[in-house]
Every structure is written in C-alpha cells, then in structure tokens.
Design goal:
The complex is a heterodimer of chains A (722) and B (314). Chain A is an alpha+beta fold and 722 residues long. In chain A, the strands form nine sheets. In chain A, strands 2-3-22-21-20-19 form a six-stranded antiparallel beta sheet. Chain A has a five-stranded antiparallel beta sheet with strand order 1-18-17-16-15, with no helix packed on it. In chain A, helix 8 runs antiparallel to helix 9, helix 9 packs antiparallel against helix 10 and helix 10 runs parallel beside helix 12. The N terminus and C terminus of chain A are likely disordered. By secondary structure, chain B is α+β, with helices and mostly antiparallel strands. In chain B, helix 3 packs antiparallel against helix 5 and helix 4 runs parallel beside helix 6. Chain B is elongated and about 85 Å long. The relative contact order of chain B is 0.19. Classes of the chains: A alpha+beta (722), B alpha+beta (314).
C-alpha cells in the first residue's frame, strides 16, 4: 500500500526532506549515548571575570565622561611633574558641576568638589608648592571678599578649589563655623576634619579643631565619632586650652563635661554594651492571642497565585509577610492595601480600612501585585503607609501612593492622590518620618527605572525636594513575577542614606537633598523576562546598618558585604557572602547575617566565626537580637541561637506552624510573630517582660532624641544604635 | 514471570535445514544480512540459561522461595551540605552543620542509634536557575560566581524497632526527622536532583526512610529450602503431565536472591549507578514498616529418567 503522504504531496518535494531526515537519523544513530549530559549540570564558573570590577545594575548620576578624563589627565600630568598642564586639566574639572558625582576608587562616587579637594590635598609637596604659586593670590582675594550674602559661596569655592593654598585652612575653619551655626553638623565636622587630615601644618590649633569637630559630631547624633575624637584629645591634647563660646577651657575636661551633660541615656547604655537582655520564651506553645490574617480558604488561594496562570512558579505574593508597625497600644498591618489596627494587649481588631472580602479571588484574577511595595510606619499618633487602593489590587501601572491615617481611629488624612504635585509619583519602600518631614523613594509614573528620593512636609504633603538618584538597569515596576527592590532609608544626623537594594547606595544631605556621595556595589541584575516553570529564588532584604561610623551594606541581590567608613567616605572592606543573605544586626565585634542560614562575621578580620543553617519558608524575615541571643521565626518555630557559637539554645515551636515563618518583634512584655498567615503574641516570662518593656521604652526615648526610625522596631537590633 | 517454566525435551533442529529450496534469492540475501547482524550483536547474558540447555534432555524449572520478616532497624539518609564562594567559609559552614547534627542526635540519648559518615565530597555548586536556563536553551549567566559545595552523606540507623508498634516506630522516626531538620541537615532529594528528575521526565524519589532487615542467615536458609521444594514440585508436575519420570538434579542456578544486589543505587532521575557506599552485610529493605519478603529464585534442571524399553510385543 502506498503511503498516504505520497498521495497528498508531490514526491519531488518530499524526497529531499526525507533524505535529509534519514541522513540526520543515520548521524544520530552513530552519535554517542547522551549520558554525558549530566555534565551540563556543572556550575557556571566565573572564568575570566575580574574580581575587582563592580557590576552594578544601577547607574548613579555621574559626571560627564570628559570631566573624568580631565581628572585622570590631571593625575597623570601631576605625577610626571608637569604641573602647569596638570592644573589646566584641573580647571576643566573645577568648571564642571561641582555637585555631580565622579567615580573614585572602590565603587565610590564622590561629588566633584570633594574629588578636586582631595586631588589637591594628595599632591606631592612640589605640586602643592606649584599650585600655591599659581593660585594663592586668587584664593586670598576670594577669602578677603567673602563677606555678606556671598560669604558662604566664596568660602565653599576656596575650600573645594583652593584648599591647599595658604588660606585654605582658614576658609575651611570659617566655613565650618557657618555650617555649625546653620545646624549642618555633618558639613561643619567635615570642614574641620579636612584641616585635621590634610593640613597638619595649619596654624589653627589642632586641639581647637578637634573640640569643635567633636561637638559637631555629637550634635549630629554621631556619638561614636565623638568618642573617637575625645580619645585623641585625652591622649594628645588633654591639658591644652581652647576657646569655646568665648571662654578658655581645658580641652579634655570640656569634652568630658559635654558628654556627661548631653549624651542621651540610651547612647550611654549602648556604649557600655548594656544591650537588650535576652528573652525568656514561654514554656508552652499557647499564645496570648493570635490574629489570623487570612482564613484557610483565602490562604490556599494565595498559595496558588502563579500556579493557576500556568506559569508553574511561586510568585512573591505566595510567601509575603505583611508590613507591620506597632506602638505601645496597637499593632498596625498593611496587608495588600487593607489597613488594620489590633489591640496589642488582646489582639482585638480595633479598626480596618476595608473588609477583606474576596481577597483570594482578587489575588488570582491578576498578577501585578508587588506585595513588597506596601509598607506601614507609625510616628506618634499618625500612621504612614505606602499603599494602593484595594480596588486596584494587581492592576499593572497603578501607582502606589503615600498617605497618613490617624493611628487611633484609622481616619484618613492627606494622600498623594489628592496633593497635586505628588500625583506623578509611584512611591516605594518604607517611609522615614523625622519631625515634620517624611523621606521616601519614588519613581515617576511610567518611568520606573528612574529612582528619586523625596522629602515631604508631614503636615500637608508639600514636596520639599526631589533628587534623582540614578537609573535601574531593569525597571522594578515591571518585576511583577519576583520580589522587586524596594529602597531602604536610614537617617543619621543630617545625612540620609538610601540603599536602592539594586546595586547602589546614596548618601544625601537630608536638609536640601543634595547628594553627598554614592557607592555602586556588586549586584545581579534580575531578569525581567518571565519563564514558565521558573524556580522561585530565595530572596531576603534588609536596610543597611550603621554602627560606630561604619555603614554595612548588603543589597538584596548582591553577593558582597561592604563596610564603608562614612566619615571619609571610604570602603573599609568587602567580602563575599551568599546572595540570599541579609543584614540582621551588628554588635561590638560581630556582624550577623540571616536568611536560610545565620552567619556571624568577625569585624576585626572579616572571617566567618560560625554558621547555623535554619529552615527557610519565606525570605520576608526579621530576626531579633539581644545581648547573647539571636531569634529567628522559621516555618518550624522560633529558633533561639547562642550568639557565641550559633548553637540552638531552644526551639520554640509556638502556635503558627502552618505558616512559612516571618518577622519577630517585642512589645509590652510580649513576643510578636508575624507570618504570612497570622500575627501571634506570646507572653514572655519573668524578667524578659521587663526587658521587653524597657526595650520599648528605649525606642520611645530614641525616637524623641533622634527621630530616626519611627517604625519603632529598633529595641533589639543593634543597627539602631548610632 | 515468577512462574515461567520451560520444557525442552529435544534439541532444536538446525535452522539451515528448514530453508526451503524454492526461496527466492533476494529473500535469502536479506535473511543472510539479518543473520550477520544478529551474529554481530553482543550476546545477551539472560540467554545463557537457555543456550546450553538445548542439547541435554531434561526439565528446567524455576523454583521460588519466600520468607518474611519484620524490619529490625530504620535507616535515614541525611546530608550535611554547605556552600560558599570562599572555600574557607564553606568549610566552617559544613563543620558547624555536621557538628550540630551529630550533637542533636547525641542529645536524644538513643542507645541503638548509630550515625555513619559515608564520606565528604567537594564540588562546584551549580545554580538551579543557571541549570534551567541552559536546559531551556537560554544563555548562561556569565557573572555567576563559582561556589564550592562541601557535602557528606550521613547514614542514621536506629536498631531494635522490630518489637515496637507501628505508632511507636512512626513517633521515633518523626523524632529523628525533626531532629535532622532542626539541626540543619538536609533530607530528601537535592534541588539539583529534582531538576535532573524533571529533565529526565521522572518523578523524584522522595523516600526519606528505609526499613531494613539484617541477620538474613535464617531467612535465607528457609527461603532456599522453599525454593528447592518449589522447583521439585513444579518439575514433578510437569513430568507427570508429560508422562515421564523425573531424574536427578543436573544443575542449579541462582536467579535472584534478596539482599545480594547492594552495590547499585537508582538516582532520583531513574539512572542506575554504582553505590558509593562501602560493601556491608546483605540486607533487605522496604519503604514501609511492614513485613519484608526475602525471596530466592532458582533455575533448576532435572534429568529425565529413560523410559522402560518397549518392544513390538508389548
């Protein structure tokens, strides 16, 4: 019988393909068995990669390339001793935007003014001599004319462009005084420190500069920096007299008296290592109360998001732990735009912004949820949320807005939808409330790759400043299938740090929004393409830690841990860590990372002291650190680890074992666990109750003094100690 | 399969004698070529049984014997795994995980619990995502940093479960599994194994626990006796049905003996590979806490006694 194929197709057309196929089959039949494919599972080695090359998927707003080229030429020519040509190149740099960032070593990006000043300060003696020959007269003229309304600008010009001239130190000292009077303590300290560091031959008494610098650091809340300067004064200038406030005082005695009078009590406690006492977990698993966020049917629907669309993968919403804040009276939850307040003593629902009707269905009807973008912060009697209207759940392109609510009643105040100039913004990350200001990050609607920092007036939402921080390689607003990077903010003194969580951290002047410096760090670029059956990546995220003048940075998709000296700024060290790890806390000699394993890193030599592998259900975790213990809420209960060696002291199963684990807080003698399913309170035993209450009190004190982080979750995390 | 039997009273006639003379030439050529191919093909070992059975008259039968026993120990395979970009970090992580796992089981104070470390391996850790990207035909990520993975298999064996009730055994197994998980040890297939299983279209083997019977001597003796008896019964039956008289045993071959094949393991993706474990005494196992059969299967060949001479007068 003739094959059917031959009846329907012309033989001439069919024969060549058939012959080809036959040939292919013949070749295939002689090929070796495919057992060797197992080898394909071998890891992708980083062959030929440069270890020191920064690979950041975030681009900082850097200076134009010709300016960087001029700067490089200046360094080359000055090294050769051809100073006249070198200074010509430097003039091009000085003519450029002084505030634009210029790449420096180790991933740091400095404002051009600072780069110029450093470049001059690092010149050889012959180079400095030559520079003075060319510019002393100009600098002196500028300094002499620095009076009235131009005083500040002219002093700045001398300080940045002519710091090595004969009058550079005088200009820096005067500029420091002006900044101090204006309350810009970080800038004042920077001026005096520059003279101390780069102009050791200055005629200005060193003790006087040290004392002024120490006071500026203390006024800025940097008591660790104050302590370091105080030690130097005691060791080298103890008996020297300085003039402070028109009075002759002994330098060391003055600083000692100043510290005793001005240092906040929690800073004294931190300095004496009186950390939060360990918690005494309850003997039984029964909770004091439990608030089930989702009924089982809804929880099951949540767990299926991503599977029912045929993607066969876990979207981040399936493991999300809702944003939570708390104060002395209440626990506040922002669950996908549904705001709730619970009584911290009883767990009773006090108010909610909407009924959680059909949430599971809403979750399954769309995919663009961005659960990580919802946040809540309580400051005093006001609740601040970055949220999206529940009617817009999962709708792609709908912006997240910032708004305020009355904490006691849930009554809504202003939100960015009804403040004209804020309507263009899609807000991100957790807002940082300090006094009458709210700091936060945002992108303009439809321009998700461009990241900005904003300062708003708390009372009415008026935009005080907006600063462009840079550009994402991958637009986070398109990252609906995985956890998108949400910028984390940290305020220290007058400086605002924003970790993009995507390859860069930026330090800004909180008052005006000007960028002080930036740092680009290694980070993998998330793929915005979505694949069927794509495995879920275990991802964690935590804000940077600041302790003892060192900023510790670990971006959410970075496999490097960085320690930056913020006073210089300068990269102190970096070391490889797991990409899935997150910063958990730091004490005097150890830095702790968490994730699916807890790591303790010795700060002195950056070596790993110990590691403890823990069950991992969700990457949305928040561990708790006390004096000697490390607590982490996992899918198998709360692990209590010994900070000395990482051994499990106790595994408290608790009563939320259906969950994936999540975050831990203490409040009013209770341990609060927040999971993807429930909020559970456990009564702490005996002295730990007092400890938790003391910790909460300490938070209140700290908020009063520094207004740093009004999320009020800092009582047990050493990163709160500045 | 188990009851397959074979009778061969006469040797097979030579194939060439059966060829018909009128067979056409092309047909003969094809057959010749086919024969050549068959001759060139490697010899299949399973054919050995019948290959030399063709010329001697006799009755060849399988005999199977089975005895059962309750498991006397439970085995759980754990892994202490650690990976890091710096080998020094990986070593510390591995050291801590292993130490905590061993200490956690020590704290259980179970006299009959033994833990054996089956060796440490160091390998490059493949990213699951990179592996899948390759399988999808995508580009490899070039900036993935190589990680060292240190892994050792820990074999946990708890003896003395034969006398326990199933509930007690489950409770004890649960305790061991919880201890393993809480201490940081890994159980079950690795992500890489899961991927391989997916790649090969197999269901990953998710068995966590094996129940084992050791001390097989008595079981073996009984099973052999039963197998020999079974073979004799079958042979007698065949002899009777065919009107012949069963003679002596001409040969015996072991076809299957439970517990003998310890040196191969099946990967979660269905591939059979040599076991990395050192040889131990034979044992039989099951994934269930239930009576485990010990089986012996023999191939026994009996002779056929010559029939009494018959004459025309008879």
């Amino acid at each position: 019988m003739r094959p059917i194929l031959h009846e329907s197709l012309n033989r001439r057309h069919v024969t060549p393909p058939l012959a080809g196929m036959a040939a292919m089959l013949l070749v295939a039949s002689f090929s070796r068995p495919c057992g060797g494919q197992v080898v394909m599972a071998a890891p992708v080695a980083a062959q030929g990669t440069d270890e020191n090359a920064q690979k950041s998927p975030f681009t900082l707003p850097a200076q134009k390339s010709d300016v960087a080229e001029s700067l490089a030429e200046f360094h080359r020519l000055s090294a050769k001793g051809t100073f006249e040509r070198a200074f010509k190149e430097l003039e091009k740099v000085q003519a450029a935007d002084a505030n634009a960032l210029t790449p420096a070593a180790d991933g740091l990006y400095m404002p051009t003014r600072l780069v110029v000043r450093r470049s001059l300060a690092e010149l050889s003696p012959a180079g400095k001599q030559a520079y003075r020959l060319f510019h002393d007269a100009d600098a002196k003229a500028l300094l002499d004319s620095a009076r009235g309304k131009d005083e500040l600008e002219k002093l700045r010009k001398v300080f940045s462009d002519h710091f090595v001239t004969a009058v550079g130190d005088t200009a820096a000292d005067r500029l420091g005084d002006i900044y101090f009077e204006q309350g810009e303590m970080a800038k004042a300290a920077d001026c005096w420190q520059a003279v101390l560091t780069w102009r050791p031959e200055s005629a200005i008494p060193r003790a006087r500069l040290l004392v002024k610098s120490a006071i500026a650091e203390a006024r800025g809340g940097h008591w660790s920096a104050f302590a370091a300067i105080q030690r130097e004064v005691e060791q080298r200038h103890a008996a020297e007299m300085v003039v402070v406030g028109g009075k002759q005082v002994v330098a060391a005695e003055y600083l000692d008296a100043f510290a005793k009078k001005q240092q906040p009590p929690e800073q004294i406690a931190a300095a004496s290592e009186a950390a939060v006492p360990d918690l005494l977990l309850p003997p039984g698993d029964a909770p004091a109360w439990q608030f089930r966020i989702l009924p089982p049917r809804e929880a099951a629907a949540f767990a299926q998001v991503g599977m029912n669309w045929g993607w066969n993968q876990r979207f981040s919403v399936t493991e999300m732990v809702p944003a939570v804040a708390r104060d002395e009276k209440r626990v506040y939850v922002n669950f996908m735009g549904y705001l709730m307040a619970l009584d911290v003593a009883t767990g009773k629902l006090l108010w909610r912004s909407a009924r959680l009707a059909d949430l599971g269905t809403k979750m399954q009807q769309s995919q663009f949820h961005f659960p990580e973008q919802y946040s809540v912060v309580v400051a005093g009697e006001t609740l601040w949320c970055v949220t999206r209207d529940v009617a817009q759940i999962g709708q792609q392109g709908q912006p997240f807005r910032i708004g305020r609510w009355e904490a006691a009643t849930g009554k809504a105040g202003w939100n960015s939808q009804n403040v004209g100039e804020l309507q263009q913004w899609n807000f991100m990350g957790q807002p940082l409330v300090a006094g009458d200001r709210v700091y936060l990050a945002a992108a303009k609607n439809g321009q998700g790759a461009e990241l900005y920092a904003l300062a708003l007036q708390a009372a009415d939402g008026k935009q005080l400043w907006a600063t462009r921080l840079g550009t994402h390689q991958s637009d986070p607003t398109q990252m609906w299938q995985r956890r998108s990077p949400q910028p984390a903010l940290l305020l220290d003194g007058g400086r605002l740090y924003i970790d993009t969580q995507a390859g860069a951290i930026v330090a800004l002047d909180a008052a005006a929004g000007a960028i002080d410096w930036g740092f680009a760090y290694d980070s993998s670029a998330p793929d915005n393409n979505n694949w069927y059956n794509q495995p879920a990546q275990f991802t964690t995220a935590a804000p940077p830690l600041l302790a003892e003048g060192t900023l510790y940075v670990k971006g959410m998709r970075s496999d490097r841990l960085y320690a930056i000296d913020v006073s210089a700024p300068k990269l102190r060290w970096k070391r490889p860590v797991s990409e899935s790890s997150m910063l958990a806390g730091v004490d005097r000699d150890t830095l702790y990372l968490s994730g699916d394993e807890v790591l303790a890193i010795n700060l002195a030599d950056q070596k790993l002291k110990w590691a403890s592998r823990l069950p991992s259900g969700t990457g949305w975790i928040r561990p708790l650190l006390t004096a000697d213990r490390f607590y982490q809420f996992t899918s198998r209960g709360v692990f209590e680890l010994d900070k000395a060696n990482g051994d499990t002291v106790r595994l408290f199963r608790g009563s939320d074992l259906d969950s994936l684990g999540g975050m831990l807080f203490t409040q009013r003698g209770r341990l609060l666990s927040v999971s993807n399913l429930a909020i559970t309170a456990y009564a702490l035993e005996g002295p730990a109750r007092a400890a938790a209450a003391q910790a909460a009190q300490r938070v209140t004190l700290r908020v009063c003094f520094t207004l740093l982080d009004n999320n009020a979750d800092l009582e047990a995390t050493p990163h709160a100690v500045h | 399969m188990r009851f397959t039997r074979m009778i061969q009273k006469t040797p097979a006639a030579p194939f060439s004698g059966r060829l018909r003379a009128e067979c056409k030439r092309p047909c003969a050529l094809l057959l010749g070529a086919g024969l050549c191919l068959l001759l060139a093909a490697p010899r299949a070992e399973a054919q050995m049984v019948t290959a030399d059975a063709g010329h001697t008259p006799g009755i060849t039968v399988y005999g199977t014997g089975e005895t059962i026993a309750k498991p006397d120990l439970v085995e759980i395979s754990l892994r202490a795994v650690a990976s890091a970009e710096l080998t020094g970090d990986a070593i510390i992580k591995y050291r801590d995980t292993k130490r905590r796992t061993l200490e956690a089981f020590d704290k259980l104070k179970l006299d009959k619990l033994q833990i054996e470390e089956l060796g440490v391996s160091l390998s490059d850790q493949a990213s699951v995502e990179a592996m899948q990207a390759m399988w999808r035909g995508g580009m490899q990520t070039t900036n993935v940093k190589a990680k060292v993975e240190i892994s050792s298999a820990l074999q946990l064996r708890l003896a003395g479960i034969r006398e326990m009730k199933p509930e007690q055994v489950m409770e004890m197994v649960g305790k061991l599994l919880d201890t393993a998980k809480d201490s940081g040890a890994s159980i079950g297939p690795t992500p890489a194994e899961m991927n391989m299983a997916w790649r090969y279209g197999q269901q990953a083997n998710s068995t966590l626990v094996r129940f084992i019977v050791r001390d097989l001597n008595k079981l073996r003796e009984e099973a052999y006796e039963n197998a020999v008896e079974d073979a004799r019964k079958r042979a007698r039956r065949l002899a009777k049905l065919n009107g012949i008289t069963l003679g002596d045993v001409l040969g015996v071959q072991e076809v299957q003996v439970s517990g003998d094949d310890q040196q191969v393991v099946t990967t979660p993706w269905g591939q059979t590979i040599p076991s990395s474990k050192k040889a131990s005494e034979p044992e039989i196992s099951s994934e269930q806490f239930a009576d485990i059969p010990f089986r012996v299967k023999l191939l026994v060949r009996f002779s056929i006694l010559p029939a009494e001479a018959k004459t025309a007068r008879n």
